Amino acid sequence: MASKETVVCLLRRDLRLHDNEVLHWANQHADNIVPVYCFDPRDFGKTDNVGLPKTNPARLKFLLESVGDLRKALRNAGSGLIIRKGKPEDIVQEIVDSIGKGNVKAVALHEEATSQDRAVELALAKVCGVPVKKFWGSTLYHRDDLPFNINGLPDMFGDYRKQISSQSKVRNTIPPIEKLKPLLGGLEQGDLPNIEEFGFKDPQPDPRSGFVFEGGETAALARLRYYLWESDSVSKYTQEQVGGKLTKNSTKLSAWLALGCISTRKIYEDIQKYENKKTSNQSTQGIVNELLWRDYFKFLALKYGEKIFQLSGLSDNEVEWKHDDKLYGAWKEGKTGIPFIDANMRELANTSFMSNEGRQDVASFLARDLKLDWRMGAEWFEHLLIDHDYASNYGNWLYSAGVGKDIRQDIQLNVVKRGCDNDPQGDYVRLWVPELAAIQNDKIHTPWSLGSAELGKDGVVLGDTYPTPVAMAPEWE
Length: 477
Known about the structure:
Layout: E1 6-11, H1 21-29, E2 32-39, H2 57-76, E3 82-85, H3 88-99, E4 104-110, H4 115-127, E5 132-135, H5 157-167, H6 217-230, H7 254-259, H8 264-277, H9 282-304, H10 325-333, H11 339-351, H12 356-369, H13 374-384, H14 390-401, H15 415-422, H16 427-432, H17 452-457
């Protein structure tokens, strides 16, 4: 079954055919291609500090759908996908040995940014016994095109954006491959696991959710097409309201980006086309700015490595963080007594998604108002978010907790005011905190400011039907 020009392609967070340099290179340099995806048991272990499961049913379902869609696309292109359970470095070594090292030209993969993924890459290089061909494909601006080396990455996002925008250029996307070199014969492709094999039940969508995610490149490209060309939502992005059924103008592309079902360059390229044909405004540029933030956090992870996961973060400041299970439990369960915080946390628990604004608010509340160890919050997000990405999640938490490098991170959010601003009539809070639904208008954001008689008319008893606030700040009045 051997061929002297076989390339093994380890696919991880690049589950797509478009803009995929690994598959493109392999298709040009091999007679046979062996695409491989591994369900790494380390992704299903426990988080380091709180011991939470690293994944959840919603994200696993999305992953399974994405891998299944990739296999279908590869087969339609004349290839296939080897699916295995196990550590990638072990599985790839077994596949290389079964083919014969002399028959394998290389193992090809996309490099990742965080220390966990880079450890896999190092382990693979040590054991596979053949050349490892690495590519970079997870950011809008290519790592090699930065106007500085990675250790010279500016510590302020604003400085980074100015330099990158004026001195670098986004590379063109690589077209999707219509015809791939055949899969090497004689290899068992393996079955796509079902969710029960991982000890989970198939999750059911919450009827309050404004969006149902479906994994895979096919769904990702359909979402991009709808968001830009069919609904013109891209031109209304900055009008986004927070949460639930009110997030119709949110891109929702983050989950597909996290698994590489769509590339940042593809999104950027299509937005440019939209701006040329329809309109360019604050909203279209706002989405590009979010892609720049995503890049920045990945490059930050490359620069600082394990530091982004440590309690002190990137800061030299000493902070006395608390570990209070009661406060942490109230935050996780959406029972803090701060309605806007609780609404966001309940949406996350029930849908595995939360708006970008909401994530900033609940992170600030945990780290700044409750003064809890910020990693407890980051790991709860890691456990639940359908779009969890290590660099973006921990990068955002560093910023929210004030242990990053950006001097603007020291600004504490007024989470009650932001709730009133983003949910002025309280519709979002009523959706997720129904015990307060009878309170009218924006009064719902501050039930503690209402008298017991007024609350009683609305069926609310603080400390009974709804919690009293676990924390208070003068600026909330």
